[in-house]
């Protein structure tokens, strides 16, 4: 029996044994490039170095005793009492691991910890046909996944508006980006169904769907359970892989994320292996430390590892040992307390931002309240009846008029896979103080009023 964490952090019981899709299933999904890649002859032998009694003359690893770093210490806030700090130190073998080349998929101890985390958060047990790879942020892994799955010119399904960081990936592969509508309940599975059911006969169907299910960047929206379930059902019916990019999972404003992830929910499917999940530590530990991780079918993760082995070789060993030292000292409960503090911080920021919107923008903008993440997505109402589509006008207002008044926000067009104009604007509320939020919203109000008067 498997337990999928549910809305209240307890568990949904899942009675059937997990049935991973067979390796051969993925052959049709791999891109030509991924199929052509060969494993690194040296890196693929790294695990054998650990064979007891074997003297390794294998890799050109430098001798870490020649390096100038002898110890590394840092202070970390207690996850339970943020006012208190503990000093953590790395030296000896632990530090040497951080100074040395390491396994392509990630530091074994960190991977081990992350397996436990995924089991706690998504009910997925290791050794059930899936694996984890660490990357230099989730962006690194998303890019590698895209190139492992998509051939130039392929059609891909992307929620729209979409995280701007994936548009250039699909664009450089000359993909046909099929936009799946979204609304306040996240991705619209009915729009996805229509697209797939009306797919022209004889044209290959898309192999991937890209979606950000919690506190979406840019819309701030969270996909409901019903939507998630229907998307998974469609993935089975129409044979595609869900690229679940979930960097805001830990920024859900509440005790526990409200809905199970796709990665958890697929345990209810007859077979598992259609979800490739991306997590990020950027929003909760440090963005600069560049640690993300992907969880999913072994074949796909191995394709990602082969890309890594031919590009950056691995994620920084040093940042991996630092992150592991911290996470190991906190334990899973400590990590949860920490992420709860962080999400409460953003929930307060959301409230401050929304208060200012209600004060200055009622009748001048429309928005939905985010439940996770760090973004407000709002539509500028540039005419009183808001009759016309003012997409292009909104872009001008936010890019020039609002900027002249001293506020910088992103026009929604930036998040449109095919460059379609939109009257929406993305505002990030992660950094701004209460006074500045108030000022910023007043400036947006003034820009809208000027545009209406013009
Ligand atoms: N996906 C989304 C939706 C994001 O918003 C971001 C960060 N802006 C990333 C991926 C990349 O995050 P990371 O720092 O883990 O590479």
List descriptors:
454 residues, alpha/beta, eight-stranded mixed β-sheet, four-stranded antiparallel β-sheet, globular, binds 4'-deoxy-4'-aminopyridoxal-5'-phosphate
- Counting DSSP E segments of at least 2 residues, the number of strands comes to 16
Which residues sit in consecutive blocks of at least 5 with pLDDT less than 50? 7-11
Rg calculated over all Cα atoms: 23 Å
Main pleated sheet: 8 strands, mixed
Helix content: 25-40%
How are the strands of the biggest sheet laid out side by side? 5-12-11-10-9-6-7-8
Distance between the termini: 64 Å
Question: What small molecules does the structure contain?
Answer: 4'-deoxy-4'-aminopyridoxal-5'-phosphate
Strand content: 15-25%
Order of helices and strands: EEHEEHHEHEHEEHEHEHEEHHEEHEEH
Q: With helices defined by DSSP (H or I, 4 residues minimum), what is the helix count?
A: 12
Give the overall average pLDDT: 93
Tell me the overall shape. globular
